[in-house]
Amino acid sequence: MVEYAIIADKLTKKFGDFVADNAISLKVKKGEIFGILGPNGAGKTTLISMLTTLLKPTSGSAKLMGKDVIKDQLAVRKMIGVITEKVTMYPPLTAEENLMFFGRLYGIEKAELKKRITAGLEEFQLTKFRNRQVGTFSLGMKRRLDIVRVLLNDPQVFFLDEPTVGLDPITVAFIKKRIKEINKRGKTIILTTHIMQDADELSDRVALIDHGNLMACDVQSKLKRKLGKHATLEDVFIHYAGEQLRDETQKMEMAPRRGM
Ligand SMILES: Nc1ncnc2c1ncn2[C@@H]1O[C@H](COP(=O)(O)OP(=O)(O)OP(=O)(O)O)[C@@H](O)[C@H]1O
Ligand SMILES: [Mg+2]
């Protein structure tokens, strides 16, 4: 029997008349690394936001480890970790102070929390910056610390929305290695990335989304084989998404901005 970490059933999100995600149904197996690919504005972050309870679907439903993302929000939140493009750390606080703060929010008991912080900082090679203000960190250090923060809560399902964007190749390689290790410890991982090589290397399966529609969902080798012997994941991406540039703006930006 396959057990699923995520079952999405016709998940739809509309912003006004605009359909950001259109009846997306997919299943993510427990213990899998699942890549979500698609052009800018395709609806990837919106989909992740619905799966992580941050956005309420307009229609459709989803379950995470058997819990409904709408009806069982709290239970879902306890089981997930989410890394978004924005790093959520307080610049004036030190690395340890930030981790203590978030760890206490997660409700982790103090002695246990200290242990987890020490192990996390060590794993992400940040031990010597433990008492340094996060405001002085490079983007790579902040991103690593953000992952340490999320892992404190020992999430069963770990969402990473473009975890390597803006990072140098050494940090990218380091983070990819850690993602694989975290997965080996039994965690289900859902990630988005625009870097096809990363998606290909990391993912067990990928979903391709375009204009809010799920275009394909399978193991990469099968998707490539359909296009020919030497097809790459980039070829698959272009095959489903076309070559048209995407210059979509946030629909809410059409409204007059306050304070301007
Ligand atoms: N809060 C919002 N209000 C209005 N429109 C939104 C909102 N959030 C997203 N959108 C629109 O929905 C569409 C999908 O956005 P989303 O952020 O999910 O795309 P994405 O696939 O994550 O893109 P990217 O690769 O650029 O991160 C876009 O056209 C975006 O402008
Ligand atoms: Mg996005």
TrEMBL record:
Domain ABC transporter: 6-236
Keyword annotations: ATP-binding, Nucleotide-binding, Transport
Gene3D superfamilies: P-loop containing nucleotide triphosphate hydrolases (3.40.50.300)
SUPFAM superfamilies: P-loop containing nucleoside triphosphate hydrolases
Domain of life: Archaea
Pfam family, one: ABC_tran
Alphabetized GO MF terms: ATP binding; ATP hydrolysis activity
Family annotation (PANTHER family): ABC TRANSPORTER ATP-BINDING PROTEIN (PTHR42711), ABC TRANSPORTER, ATP-BINDING PROTEIN (PTHR42711:SF18)
Name of the protein: ABC transporter related protein
